[in-house]
Amino acid sequence: MSFADELVIRAKKLNKTVVLPETEDERTLLAADRLVREKICRVVLVGNPSKITADAKKAGANLSGCDILDPADDKESLPLADKLCELRKDKGMTPEKARELIRDYLYFGTMLLKVGRVDGYVAGATHTTGDNLRPALQIIKAAPGLKTVSSFFLMVFPEPKWGEKGVLLYSDSGMVEMPTAEQLADIAVSSARTFRQLVDAEPRVAMLSYSTKGSAKSKDTEKVVKATELAKKMAPDVVIDGEMQADAALIPGIGERKCKGSPVAGRANCLIFPDLDAGNISYKLTERIGGAQALGPLVQGMAKPAHDLSRGCSVDDIVKVSAIAAIMA
To answer: pLDDT, tens digit, for every residue of 156-208?
Structure first.
């Protein structure tokens, strides 16, 4: 059984509800059918019920088990608009603007998440990352104790030697371009939480650099050193170490030689990259040359799970990300 299959099985036991707002795309409708039919999670769809039902029939999707909520229905939208206005009034939100925004399927879906009517949000099949996550960044915001929302990949290897039974977490590989030390610390703490949730194992977090324990000195390496210190203070229950090179983090013999006595070196399962260049390049090389399956990019550090799909995603991708959202809820 694959790791992705294990995630789906875990999601089935939780009975969570995920909102899929991009109902103009048949991939969303087919994914909703599968999610409900296979009892992975409950599904709320956003849009005009008549149109969604007609489109589903054309696509061959059975949506009888899904709830469909229409932003054009004042009974549904006005309470959410009032809440949106209340949440954003310090940013200049007016009742008129809130009523206009709530007609947007993404804002409507995000507000359903905010008020607790759903447990997770998944979109991005037809929207850019910026457009898709803007409502969540404005409304859901970062989790308590964090200021940084970041992204991660789960890298799943065909052999179990890497990470935890063949699973490594890479972060940030898709969102925060040039993180400060404080942001890197947030990313490390978020990644540890994510790893516990999704892999169901204890995280061992390596703060990566081109330097290991002072072998080189620069502003870049000092940033990682500072981030390591901050992360340890933020999460004293998490095993975190750095700065260290990737081989020291992953290869036991090298880890012992370069970082003798480290609880992470040679055993890392969460890799925190110093910037987006390093993280993005590494995940693509790991996937293409290393033969790993890349699950992501997924979003972490929010108060509630809101995920961003690739616009080239498949129905299966939507199903997997919805299962992950259910688990992270």
So the answer is: 999 899 999 999 999 999 899 999 999 999 999 999 999 999 999 999 999 99
Query: Does the predicted model carry a pTM greater than 0.85?
Result: yes
Assess contact for 169 and 195: CB atoms under 8 A. Answer: yes
Could you tell me the domains of the chain?
3-141+303-328 (3.40.50.10950), 150-296 (3.40.50.10750)
Sign, CA dihedral 70-115-299-11, equals negative
5-21 confidence digits (pLDDT tens): 999 999 999 999 999 99
Quote the CA–CA distance of 98 and 77 in Å, as a whole number.
10
Cross-sheet strand order for the sheet of 167-171: 239-244, 204-208, 270-272, 167-171, 150-156, 293-300
Cβ atoms within 10 Å of 50's Cβ, excluding its own: 10
What does the alpha-carbon distance between residue 109 and residue 117 come to, in Å, rounded to a whole number?
A: 10
CA dihedral 215, 220, 224, 230 (to 10 degrees): 130
Q: What is the dihedral of CA 137, 320, 194, 284, to 10 degrees?
A: -90
Question: Which runs of consecutive H residues, i.e. helices, occur in the chain?
Answer: 3-12, 26-37, 49-59, 74-88, 95-101, 105-114, 129-139, 181-199, 219-234, 246-250, 252-258, 276-288, 315-328
Location of structure tokens 């799909």: 309
DSSP three-state, residue 34: helix
b/e 88-108 (16+ beta carbons within 10 angstroms → b): beeeebeeeebbebbeebbbb
Phi, psi (rounded to 5 degrees) for 150: -135, 180
Q: Are strands 120-123 and 306-308 parallel, antiparallel or unpaired?
A: parallel
How, if at all, do strands 293-300 and 150-156 pair? antiparallel
